[in-house]
Amino acid sequence: MKLHIGSGPVELFGWINVDNVPYDGVAVLSDVRNGLPFTNVDFIFAEHFIEHLTLADGLQFLKECRRALARAGVLRLSTPNLDWVWLTHYKPPSEMTPEEELFGCLEINRAFHGWGHQFLYNLHTLTRALQTAGFATVQSKAYGESDIDELRDLEKHERHRDLPGAPSVLVIEATGHRESDGEFEQILQPYLRDAVTH
Q: Which domains are assigned to the chain?
């Protein structure tokens, strides 16, 4: 079984397209913040989706993905890269003209909150969140590339010019099982309390 979570109007053929809006091609209408009604899934793919969840809901979603996947199942996520946003949208104010400072402020806030964004990840934070959710292995992948045929060329969302060491879009594949030591969730507690959830 292959799940395409947060599919929106992008239907992937051969996949079960899941969304909370009844777009054409959506096979399962579900708000995944309430859990995933699946078990023993081979692949889960979510493109430009997790950034639309609060930090708390995003962590819960990742835990649900680990629970729903088969033992050898693979989660593939793509999401805007916070590091790229920061490097391309903002410079220290001392290096900016007043107009650049104004537009820098507007652009970085749009990146964070435009289009319904709730929380942007960098690779380190997304990796820690996936490990906390119970994934043993997290691998960074290039846009559209995978060692697994079923996960190759899935991304459809626009992308921007990558920077050295900071692609505009993070793409990861997560597999395996591990027990969380709880350390990351301890670090997150003040931020999880402050987040507004559904």
A: 2-81+118-194 (3.40.50.150)
